[in-house]
Structure formats: C-alpha cells, structure tokens
C-alpha cells in the first residue's frame, strides 16, 4: 500500500471500466475473475431490481425463500451427477471452509463412523482462499507462510505443472507420473484421509498452472479406491471459464463436493455455494437431541438478491450461447499470444478456455524467474494501462481472464497491450 498508485472506478459497462478521470479501461481480468457476462448486463440488472420489489434478504437459518430454492434446483440440474444438496455462503474461501468442515464431520456421523480420518490431502502450490481452513489446504508460501503457526496439518502432494516438469518425464507421461506419486500418499495415509481437495485443471493463484490431461480423472479414481471424499474447488475455473460450465466436465469427474463462487452471481454480488451428495447430507440428519446439525451459519447465505443475479446469469449462458464464444475467443487468444514468443523474456504462454497466462522469465532455457522484488509483471501491467487495458499479475505471470462475453477486437487489444508492456519494460 505504501507504493499504491490510486485507481478509482466510477462506473462500468460491458467489458469496460471507467475511472474517475473518465478513462476507459478494458477489464482484462474480469474484476478478479468474477465478471462473467460484462458489467451492467441488462438481464442481470433487471433480475436484481425485480427481486428488490419482493424481498432483499431473509435468513437461511430456519427459513428459506423461493428465489434461493430455484437457484438450488438450477445448480443441481447443471452440476455433475450426484450433487443434490447446496449450502450457501458469501465467498469462495467460505465455500471451501464449509466443504472441509462438512467432510470432517461426515466421517464422525456417517453410518459407519471413522473418527481417525483427520487429514486432508492437498495439491502443491494450491490456493483455496484466505480463511484459516482454506489457507491450511493452500500451498502458496508467499501468501500463507506468515500464518503457519495457526494452521492444521495437511498431507501435500506435488504440483502437477505442465510447464516446469521434470526433464526426464515426457509430456504425454506427465499425468501418470504425478498420479503415481499421489497413489503413494493415498496408500501411506489410507484410513486417515478425510478428503482430497483440488482446483480442477488450472491452479489459478499458483500462476495459472495447467494440469496435464488425465490428472483430475486419476485423482478421482484414487479417491474412489480409498473411499476418500473429493472436493472440487471450482471457484475460479467454474461458471464457464474453461469452456464448459464446470471444469470437472472435461474429464467426466463427479466430485463429492463442488465449491463455486466468484462468477456464480455473474460477478455482481457476494455469493458462493458448496454442493454435495445425499450421502453427505444424510450424515447430518437426526433427532434434535442427537445434535448432528452442521453448526456453520452465514448471515447472508442464500441472499435472494445474489441468487436472483445467479439465476439470470445461468439463463444468459443459454440465451447467448456463452460457452461457444469462450471456445471461439479462446482459439483467437492462442493465435494472438503466440506472437509474444518473439520476446526472449517470455518463457511460456498457456491457456484453458478464457484463462490464459504469459510467464516472464530471466532465462527461457533454464526457466529462471525474475527476482520478485523487480516487480516485472507489475511493471508490464502498469504500461498496459497506457493502451487502455487493466490487468493484474501474479508475480512474473501476466494473467488474462476477460469476461466471457469478450469480442474479437477486445482480444486483440488485450494482447496488443501486453505486447506493448513487455516492449516498454
């Protein structure tokens, strides 16, 4: 904050942010990966205004409301098979926290309790949020090391990075290589693992790390074999970002928990959800005296305004054929980004759907990064502002995640701005 240059947004429309100096900036990261259909989409605006004429908020503790119930129905219909129950919260970190606590409590209340299941298995360099439970299963040391004394123990496997892979492992063997290492952990901690948590396909805050094809499917098979619950953190990769509504769909994986947030409300209002199975739900049922409830409440969980926005967002996916646009613009983004390899400092360009990254390195051959303190990524993004594009890097990784409604000219402008920024720096 001591070095912060103020950027204050006054209003927005479509893919554009307009600051207090009336400068128009293309929202190249969807307002931190949240905005799905653009700002001020008339369909979502209208849905929220109509909901305001009914009720703005009612608690989900001891009651519900028709809008929230309808959203549950839509989510159950659109998520992978088996996910039939939903718990609402206000942000992605909380959605993950809910899944962790539910998984832990499940093994103490299921038909055949296994109270020794007290460990979680997480993926190296994972990011699942900033509450203490989600930080515990996270693995980005720059974000989390400060809080180590507060965190619970977690079993952590390697990061399945398709860019920085072991030299002796061919690309087509990468998934099997990592799954073998996870199989060792499942065997070693068999009977103690409560759940495995993973960001499907892409690890966002780790620097847009792309998993090798088949890795997610392999984890699902291991979790099934050892009867370990699988938590899919789809907060960043869900809601169409990878080209399907849910990233799990690419490898036909059915998780035991699916966490969604960010784009769930179209990026309009704080809303998140943890979906799970009847098997998990049943473990929390009982007579009042048994006290088997899930004692975790959110004041604004299932807020009708947020749910109205989410319902409108899901309808827009159908009406505007959003996923087809993700496919078209994603292919265009590939073509445009390929020209950046002319710069010796571009080590890798990678993409999944409309999640893309340009990784800057001091040496392409060794993949050596620039020193963090040099702020190379930050400087490139600052210069991109001069070309009317707002981007937010992850260290030396330039992240490109525009709204899913982005058009061809917008893709060109984003890549031109990145190209300009690299040239200048």
Task: Please write out the topology.
Blueprint: E1 9-13, E2 16-19, E3 24-27, H1 30-33, H2 42-52, H3 66-78, E4 85-89, H4 92-109, E5 119-123, H5 132-137, H6 141-144, E6 155-157, H7 174-188, E7 193-198, E8 202-203, E9 209-210, H8 215-225, E10 229-233, E11 257-260, E12 272-276, H9 278-282, H10 304-319, H11 322-338, E13 346-352, E14 355-363, E15 368-369, H12 376-384, E16 389-390, E17 397-400, H13 408-424
Parallel strand pairs: 3-16, 5-6, 5-7, 7-10, 10-11
Antiparallel strand pairs: 1-2, 2-3, 4-12, 8-9, 11-12, 13-14, 14-15, 14-17
Helix pairs in contact: 2-10, 3-10, 7-8, 11-13, 12-13
What report would you give on this structure?
By secondary structure, this protein is α/β, with parallel strands linked by helices. It has two domains: 9-37 and 321-424, Alpha-Beta Complex (Aspartate Aminotransferase, domain 1); 46-319, 3-Layer(aba) Sandwich (Aspartate Aminotransferase, domain 2). 34% of the residues lie in helices and 17% in strands. The chain is built from 13 helices and 17 strands. The protein has helices spanning 30-33, 42-52, 66-78, 92-109, 132-137, 141-144, 174-188, 215-225, 278-282, 304-319, 322-338, 376-384, 408-424, and strands spanning 9-13, 16-19, 24-27, 85-89, 119-123, 155-157, 193-198, 202-203, 209-210, 229-233, 257-260, 272-276, 346-352, 355-363, 368-369, 389-390, 397-400. The strands form four sheets. The chain has a seven-stranded mixed sheet, sandwiched between helices. Strands 1-2-3-16 form a four-stranded mixed sheet. Strands 13, 14, 15 and 17 form a four-stranded antiparallel sheet that branches. A hairpin with a 4-residue loop joins strand 2 and strand 3 (24-27). The longest helix has 18 residues, at 92-109. The two termini are 22 Å apart. 47% of the residues are buried.
């Amino acid at each position: 904050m001591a070095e912060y240059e103020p950027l204050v947004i006054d209003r927005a429309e479509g893919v554009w942010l307009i600051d207090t100096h009336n400068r128009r900036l293309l929202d190249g990261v969807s307002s931190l990966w949240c905005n799905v259909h653009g700002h001020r989409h008339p369909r979502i605006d209208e849905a929220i205004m109509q909901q305001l004429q009914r009720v703005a908020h009612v608690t989900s503790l001891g009651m519900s409301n028709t809008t929230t119930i309808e959203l549950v129905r839509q989510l159950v219909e659109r998520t992978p098979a088996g996910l039939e129950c939903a718990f609402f919260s206000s942000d992605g970190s909380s959605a993950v926290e809910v899944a962790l606590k539910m998984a832990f409590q499940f093994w103490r209340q299921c038909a055949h309790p296994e109270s020794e299941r007290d460990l979680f298995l997480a993926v190296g360099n994972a990011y699942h949020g900033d509450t203490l439970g989600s930080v515990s299963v996270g693995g980005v040391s720059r974000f989390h090391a400060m809080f180590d004394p507060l965190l619970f123990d977690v079993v952590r496997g390697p990061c399945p990075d398709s860019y920085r892979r072991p030299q002796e492992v061919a690309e087509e063997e990468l998934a099997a290589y990592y799954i073998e290492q996870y199989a060792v952990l499942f065997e070693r901690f068999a009977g103690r693992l409560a759940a495995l948590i993973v960001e499907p396909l892409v690890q966002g805050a780790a620097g847009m790390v792309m998993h090798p094809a088949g890795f997610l499917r392999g984890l699902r098979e291991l979790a099934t074999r050892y009867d370990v619950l699988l938590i899919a953190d789809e907060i960043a990769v869900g809601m169409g970002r990878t080209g399907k509504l849910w990233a799990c769909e690419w490898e036909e994986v059915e998780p035991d928990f699916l966490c969604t947030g960010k784009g769930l409300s179209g990026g309009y209002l704080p809303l998140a959800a943890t979906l799970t199975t009847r098997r998990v739900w049943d473990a929390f049922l009982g007579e009042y005296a048994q006290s088997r409830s899930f004692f975790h409440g959110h004041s604004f969980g299932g807020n009708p305004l947020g749910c109205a926005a989410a319902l409108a967002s899901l309808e827009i996916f159908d009406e505007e054929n959003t996923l087809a646009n993700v496919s078209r613009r994603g292919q265009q983004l590939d073509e445009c980004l390929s020209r950046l390899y002319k710069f010796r400092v571009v080590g890798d360009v990678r993409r999944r759907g409309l999640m893309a990254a340009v990784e800057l390195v001091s040496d392409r051959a060794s993949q050596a990064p620039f020193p963090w303190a040099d702020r190379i990524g930050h400087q490139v993004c600052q210069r991109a502002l001069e070309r009317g594009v707002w981007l937010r890097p992850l260290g030396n990784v330039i992240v490109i995640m525009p709204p899913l409604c982005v058009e061809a000219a917008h893709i060109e402008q984003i890549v031109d701005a990145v190209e300009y920024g690299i040239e200048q720096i």
